[in-house]
Design goal:
Blueprint (H helix, E strand, L loop, with lengths): L12 H29 L2 H27 L14 H29 L6 H26 L3 H30 L4 H28 L9 H9 L4 E13 L2 E10 L4 H19 L3 E8 L16
Parallel strand pairs: 2-3
Antiparallel strand pairs: 1-2
Length: 307
């Protein structure tokens, strides 16, 4: 994954922060309105949407904070820098989404068992306002969501909200036209299923990076073969490939070389680095060179290392 510094299509950090901050404020105001509307109308789908919106505001607030922390420079404590703050925020947000999804399933099942009357027109009015706010929030965070897993988590949170609002409007219409109160838990169950499916799918990428997994688009085997194809390289082992952040891929490896002096070793290493940058977009490279006699006893372990 090549570095993306300063490309013109990127959103500037300050403009991005302002967009996210505006989205937080709008969502907080909406949550309060929806909770009041939900209590007055007796609609669990509306209260569910409000709880979701509150989590939306929280998700955006966490994303906003993480963006700012991630830009802090490296220091003696955080020698890799603070880039992973955004991944931690994404993990928190997806976990919250999963909890919300499960809560909504519980609420919906309860309503199937004991249906309650709903005030349809009030539900439609409040959900209509909610949909408008969700649309504005989605617009504020859409461009940023392409650049960061962290903002993507918050953006998807918001998208789930917008769908929730559409579904709640549908509930209000069904109740008004047909007096069909079961529409409320059925729709709530639908929203919950979508939220759970989306959060479980998205959280995997975040967990993979936090668990130091290799980037999905780079095959470690292909990297190993390409390194061993460099002239002067006899064997590559203890190859580790991981992502410090979404945009930063790191590699470390032991390279056995036939080079006889320091200048030759330096030349081999330079060629490996150049190849890794050009072919795989890997620019953070740490190489430990060994000669034939002093290579590791467990040099057979080519990718990864035991312990």
């Amino acid at each position: 994954m090549p570095h993306d510094h300063g490309h013109h299509h990127h959103v500037s950090p300050e403009a991005g922060d302002r967009a996210v901050a505006a989205a937080v404020a709008i969502n907080l105001a909406l949550s309060v309105a929806e909770i009041i509307g939900g209590l007055l109308s007796g609609s669990v789908a509306l209260i569910a949407d409000a709880v979701h919106n509150l989590s939306d505001a929280t998700a955006l607030a966490i994303a906003w904070g993480a963006r700012r922390i991630a830009r802090r420079p490296t220091d003696a404590t955080m020698t890799f820098g603070y880039k992973r703050a955004e991944l931690v925020a994404a993990l928190i947000n997806y976990t919250a989404l999963i909890m919300i999804g499960l809560y909504l399933v519980w609420e919906a099942v309860e309503r199937f068992v004991a249906p309650r009357p709903i005030e349809g027109s009030l539900v439609i009015a409040v959900a209509g306002v909610a949909l408008l706010v969700d649309a504005v929030t989605a617009w504020l965070t859409f461009r940023l969501s392409k650049e960061s897993l962290n903002i993507r988590a918050a953006f998807l949170h918001n998208l789930a909200d917008a769908l929730g609002s559409v579904a709640v409007i549908a509930v209000g219409i069904m109740v008004m036209l047909y007096g069909w109160h079961l529409a409320d838990p059925i729709v709530t169950l639908g929203i919950a299923t979508y939220i759970l499916a989306m959060a479980l799918r998205e959280i995997r990428a975040v967990v993979r990076i936090l668990m130091l997994g290799s980037p999905p688009e780079i095959a470690p085997g292909a990297v190993l073969r390409a390194m061993e194809a460099v002239e002067g390289v006899e064997n590559v082992h203890h190859l580790h490939l991981w992502q410090i952040s979404e945009a930063t891929v790191s590699l470390e490896a032991h390279v056995v070389t036939a080079a006889r002096d320091v200048a030759e070793v330096a030349k081999v290493k330079a060629e490996i680095r150049e190849m890794l940058g050009a072919q795989f977009g890997i620019h953070h490279v740490t190489l430990d060179t060994e000669t034939r006699g002093d290579d590791c006893r467990d040099a057979g372990q080519r990718i990864g290392r035991a312990g």
